[in-house]
Amino acid sequence: MNVNLSDDLADFVAEQTREGGYTNQSEVVREGLRLLRARDRKRDALLTALEQGHAENVAGKARPLTDDVLRDIAQHGRKIAERRRPGNH
Fold first, then answer.
1. In a 3-state reduction of DSSP, which class is residue 65?
2. What does the DSSP 8-state code read for residue 23?
3. CB-based contact 3:29 (threshold 8 Å)
4. What does the radius of gyration of the chain's CA atoms come to, in whole angstroms?
5. Cys staple from 20: which of 16, 61, 63, 77, with CB 3.0 to 4.6 Å?
6. What b/e string do you get for 41-56 counting C-beta neighbours within 10 Å, with b at 16 or more?
């Protein structure tokens, strides 16, 4: 595979090879592709969640976003954070 880069991107790859802990240009490009794939997967998951939420809303399954619901969400988040703290199993 042969890849042509703009001067700016070629300079960035060279800088990452010198200072970023990458052994060669291929490692830099592979890392960039891994990040791009991860971004695409996150985007796809968000789109799926949005579609599911929309479908639930249309079906009348969604709850109105009230202060009580927001407090429940915050409390749930605090419980998750507490479980993830080191030493809490």
1. coil
2. S
3. yes
4. 22
5. 16
6. eeeeeeeeeeeeeeee
85: CB partners within 8 A, 6+ apart: none
- Within the chain, strands assigned E span none
Whether the per-residue pLDDT at 21 is higher than 90: the answer is: yes
Query: 21 Cβ partners below 8 Å, 6+ apart?
Result: none
Q: State the Cα torsion 18-22-25-29 to the nearest 10°.
A: -130
Give residues with Cβ within 8 angstroms of 71, minimum separation 6. Answer: none
Tell me the pLDDT band of 89, cut-offs 50, 70 and 90: low
pTM over 0.85: no
Nearest to 10 by CA among 25, 31, 32, 27: 25
